[in-house]
Design goal:
The protein contains nine helices and six strands; from the N terminus they run βαβααβαβαββαααα. By secondary structure, it is an alpha/beta fold. It has a domain of 210 residues: Rossmann fold (3-Layer(aba) Sandwich), CATH 3.40.50.150. The chain has a six-stranded mixed sheet with strand order 2-1-3-4-6-5, with helices on both faces. Strand 3, helix 4 and strand 4 form a beta-alpha-beta unit.
Length: 399
């Protein structure tokens, strides 16, 4: 059985590291980002295809170009750009379009490549909105796979689940939609959650990381981070928190001034955080790239191209490498009946006892005048301004 894999939207390589650890061999990677391609090239000898435009390659790439015949490919894997299906898109002026969004053309092209190669298995990773909700891609995926089965004589059947990476040893609560389709229509067993009751913590990930150049907090409000206990956010500085009242209750987004806690997994790492967007390190600063990579389950030594902001985008967009290894092994179990083994990217718990918590400080002088009673948020689903956006169902977002 072929263990070849064609990777789409490869990014910084998180999915591909995991699949390689699971035993797959890359015959091609499709990635259009210049820095992402540089990241892949500087760490591996995996073959990057063309200019990385999946829409272009979907029209021209053939199995023979990769030394394969149709039906030989073991796995087609990737995560089409998530913007049309993300929660943030639902608040954008042109959001809530799903497959009608022009950026969703990449999903169409992905299915063209499935038809061209007819791989033994397909693996997609994306935000939960990709498979859930009225603007998800599920209707399109079901229709296209059904059409492929009818016209090509295959038996692809979709298996869909939203998994939390923390349940599999990734030190981060990161919920992502996973779609698996097997060509012969066989059943697929989702990997058993191994760490649901005993998750790896941020301390497990970061205890021995010594950043070469720790970033400095520069946002307008980050001077308030020392007032907030680890594991808390700006809500600590509201009428229902334990600190001075500087903000109205639930008038900011959840990750505003959000800090990691030693004894909990990290919250989801964002790809494009604002200057006051967490999670911040308990040392009251943004996370260094080395720390972001640990939280995403990458192996040590993986190099990311670009400056700090560009590196953060790549790491935040990545599939946790450990989760990808677990999923890759599950796909191989379904297709090849291989025996289960512990993932190689799973780190042991911290070998050193955590340090004392940082003491809280007083309100900086320039913020003292802001202390006092504040109005709370007007209602769930209304956004930070308390205004209901036209067409909103009041249930698509909470803060």
């Amino acid at each position: 059985m072929s263990r070849s894999v064609l990777s789409l939207f490869s990014g910084a390589g998180g999915m591909d590291i995991g699949l390689a650890r699971a035993g797959y061999e890359h015959v091609g990677l499709i990635e259009i980002g210049r820095l992402q391609r540089e990241t892949i090239a500087s760490n591996t000898d995996w073959p990057l295809l063309g200019h990385g435009d999946v829409n272009e390659l979907a029209l021209s790439l053939k199995p023979r170009d990769l030394g394969l015949t149709r039906g030989d490919l073991g796995l087609l894997a990737g995560g089409p750009p998530c913007q049309p299906f993300s929660m943030a898109a639902q608040w954008a002026a042109q959001g809530r379009r799903g497959m009608l969004d022009a950026r969703a053309q990449t999903v169409v092209s992905t299915l063209k490549l499935v038809r061209t190669f007819l791989p033994h298995a397909v693996l997609f990773e994306n935000v939960s909105g990709f498979v859930r909700g009225p603007r998800s891609a599920m209707a399109f995926l079901e229709e296209e796979f059904s059409r492929i089965n009818s016209e090509e004589g295959t038996g692809y059947r979709l298996h869909v689940e939203v998994l939390n990476a923390a349940d599999y040893g990734v030190p981060q609560n990161r919920r992502r939609a996973i779609v698996v389709a097997l060509r012969d229509g066989s059943s697929f067993a989702w990997p058993t959650a191994t760490h649901g009751e005993s998750p790896r913590t941020a301390w497990d990930a970061l205890w021995d990381v010594r950043p070469t150049d720790p970033p400095v907090a520069r946002g307008k409000w980050t001077e308030l981070l020392p007032l907030i206990p680890e594991g808390r956010n700006y809500l600590w500085l509201t009428s229902r928190g334990g600190g001075p009242e500087l903000f109205g209750y639930r008038t900011k987004y959840w990750n505003f001034l959000l800090k990691l806690a030693h004894d909990q997994p990290s919250w989801t790492l964002p790809a494009s955080p604002g200057p006051s967007t967490g999670p911040f390190h308990w040392e009251n600063r943004p996370l260094a790239v080395e720390e972001q990579l640990r939280i995403q389950g990458f192996p040590d030594g993986w190099r990311i191209a670009g400056n700090h902001r560009e590196q953060t985008v790549q790491v935040g967009n990545a599939t946790p490498a450990l989760l990808a290894e677990v999923l890759g092994m599950s796909v191989r179990q379904a297709v090849e009946s291989v025996e289960h083994r512990a993932p190689s990217l799973l780190r042991r718990v911290a070998a050193e006892t955590r340090r004392p918590r940082e003491p809280l400080t007083r309100v900086p002088g320039r913020f003292v005048s802001l202390v006092g009673a504040k109005s709370a948020h007007a209602g769930e689903g209304l956004g930070p301004s308390g205004k209901l956006r036209p067409g909103s169902d009041r249930s698509s977002e909470t803060i």
